[in-house]
Amino acid sequence: MQKPSLPKGTRDFGPVQMARRTYILDTIKETFQLFGYQQIETPSMENLSTLTGKYGDEGDQLLYKILNSGDFIKDVKADDLEKGSGAILSKVSEKGLRYDLTVPFARYVVMNRNELTFPFKRYQIQPVWRADRPQKGRYREFYQCDADVVGTDSLVCEAEIILMIRRVFEKLNLRDYSIKLNNRKILTGIAEAIGEAGNEGPLCVAIDKLDKIGWEKVKEELTQRGFSEASIEKLAPLVSLENDLVGKVEFLKGFLNSSEIGLKGVEELEEVFEILLKMGVDLAYVDFDIMLARGLSYYTGAIFEVKVNGVSIGSVSGGGRYDNLTGVFGLPGVSGVGFSFGVDRLYDVLDELGIFPTESHTSTRLLLTYFDQAGFGYALSLLNQFRNAGIKTEIYPNQVKIQKQFDFANKKEIPFVGVCGDEEINSATISVKNMVTGEQLKMNLAEAIAVVS
Amino acid sequence: MQKPSLPKGTRDFGPVQMARRTYILDTIKETFQLFGYQQIETPSMENLSTLTGKYGDEGDQLLYKILNSGDFIKDVKADDLEKGSGAILSKVSEKGLRYDLTVPFARYVVMNRNELTFPFKRYQIQPVWRADRPQKGRYREFYQCDADVVGTDSLVCEAEIILMIRRVFEKLNLRDYSIKLNNRKILTGIAEAIGEAGNEGPLCVAIDKLDKIGWEKVKEELTQRGFSEASIEKLAPLVSLENDLVGKVEFLKGFLNSSEIGLKGVEELEEVFEILLKMGVDLAYVDFDIMLARGLSYYTGAIFEVKVNGVSIGSVSGGGRYDNLTGVFGLPGVSGVGFSFGVDRLYDVLDELGIFPTESHTSTRLLLTYFDQAGFGYALSLLNQFRNAGIKTEIYPNQVKIQKQFDFANKKEIPFVGVCGDEEINSATISVKNMVTGEQLKMNLAEAIAVVS
């Protein structure tokens, strides 16, 4: 008899984990909806032609490919074997599993461009798969949770993303965090201003590591990437710039005065702040981080990253503005801005801080228990009255000793137990025990509903 | 430039479809939770050793297999090619995609048997994949929605399944349907009573087609399967039995008086009815259908099937009791009962009947519009006040002609539009237009919140 196991890097989510994940996801969904975002879902499988070449060579390696159905090997000849897996792949597989939610979204927008109402705000919460080496906190199947608005360049969208992040964190009782904000145009301007015009790509890649490896190592990397000593020296004051938001803006206006695009980036940033102020919102939690780069090359405007302070996991959310989401599928000029929440990371953060709600909204409130057949019948007669009052209620299904029924309630962390004995039957009452305080009181049905609700 | 497409048999779900699917699934989830069921999720990928051999030869063919990562072809030799796909499969693939939710659930129970609290009530709503030929209403990726309780043989579970189905249908405004109920033991008893003891397998398979092909064709099939003419003749009165519930029970007690297991089946059925009556529930919608067989061979007790009347799609839910869920994974004796809702089918039924709610709970209620920069700033100042009152609100992000903003509201079916012009700014009001009635009224913020809520 085989002993079953899970594929490496995958997980089951049991009842407790699911209740907590649902708590996080419901909070996020509710917020997205409040801001007018609409949910879509795309298939788990995409044609390999849709996926391949979108994530770099390494990404192509990490794509899960699905074996063609039926006689999958029929087109493979003996001499193909010598050419290796790369040459054989297209003969045995034409579909792959979703690697992220961005490429499927781009495909969706292109295929539905005539039906969609632009600006189109969508959110999408689905698993993605990557054949990566599993390690702590990295899985081969994990959920992504993306929101994007496409078809507008309005900076209202950036301001609203900040508001959505703040709302989600407030609802999750996360209070110590910062929303790091920068603009890719500023980084382009900095490259110009330090005499490395056009080199913002390698500049961003190096700067992206500042938090992890420190300024000295970043300097080494920049030197290796061909940045002159003079350029690197010009960069230094930005790295060590300690100032408030207004101070940073003023500094940059001077620093970038020779770079048109750099000044445009500062201007966009200021407009986002202005929109927030017009909305009656202060700039709490917002941290203008000139050194925030984010690796992805397709960002062209604002970039975001959210870090929770005082926990081992850092970044739990991020995103940015792009101006060519769908060009690769033949529809140029679709600009937009998007961001995503790392659901697994948020889970770990709430767990580490111990701030998951103690009571789940999805689990049983009341277990009805009984001593004998008469009590069983009486409990059955009450059962649906509790449910009709909206109370999540169970009856222990088999007639066993009452202690076993109480054990069941304890293990399932059911907060109330209703006892149905002869006394309760005769007085048309029920004894309700609060499993947290231990208090037990006899009461009628209406009172019991009020107590348990 | 490539034109993107979807893999055959897969679908995107756009905002309207998602809102409707969410409506159905939220109704089902809420009901499961009210009855104490807890959600779990299992990985999309399972080891092929977990999946293979569980769904028959045809099922094994329909499993989606995932190509091993890296140099997947390295173990395949030239002479393997001659042996064909079957021999090569195990060398190039060790994982497959979930084919249903039952086998993963059985695996989950076995792997977590020491942590779970039994009786364990779980529900699970996830996509499954089958490499079937796509046709109308049949997809290669579709959602299943299962609820099972394992570790108890109490017939309270059967009664509660009937209640859950009734509650879901009531909430979805489905009124014309029947919950067909039978018991596998009765079918075993019938086989005994007509002199075909032990042949309930082929009997069930043939009877299962009664609805589709009629009694004459079923008779032919039974003859082909080796049933004697005398047996088939004895079966005839059951097929044409028109009687109420009590009448059918009485008839069967006579018909099955020589079959111990048959009488046990009738007894179980009567107990389910008795439990329902003790719960204060009538037997409305319940139809004791002696000819309900359901093909799956692992059912051993009650079997269910729910049909909506007056629509082209028939069965939308079904299930039954089994007494050996996990034996194949080395854990014998785990009995339980489960059922599932066909989400795609329920969708099509509600669509065909035109009974989806006209207003979605997930989409935008109010769009704020404006004529110029001043109005834009004013609208921004109101925006979050609406949201803080719980109203799903959007602002048109770019300054365009107001007609275009109204067009946007119409296309997104947003029921209210707030107009922010000079008059409104000067009087600290907003003009709210009801997009359904066409009525437009100027009011202050508190009034607007009340109207739109």
UniProtKB/TrEMBL annotation, chains A, B:
CDD domains: HisRS-like_core. GO terms for molecular function: ligase activity. It catalyses: tRNA(His) + L-histidine + ATP = L-histidyl-tRNA(His) + AMP + diphosphate + H(+). Its main location: cytoplasm. The keyword ATP-binding applies. Signal peptide: none annotated. Its EC number is 6.1.1.21. Residues 1-350 form the Aminoacyl-transfer RNA synthetases class-II family profile domain. The keyword Chloroplast does not apply. It is found in: Cytoplasm. Keywords: Aminoacyl-tRNA synthetase, ATP-binding, Cytoplasm, Ligase, Nucleotide-binding, Protein biosynthesis. Pfam families: HGTP_anticodon, tRNA-synt_His. Homodimer. HAMAP family: His_tRNA_synth (MF_00127). Belongs to the class-II aminoacyl-tRNA synthetase family. This is Histidine--tRNA ligase. The gene is hisS.
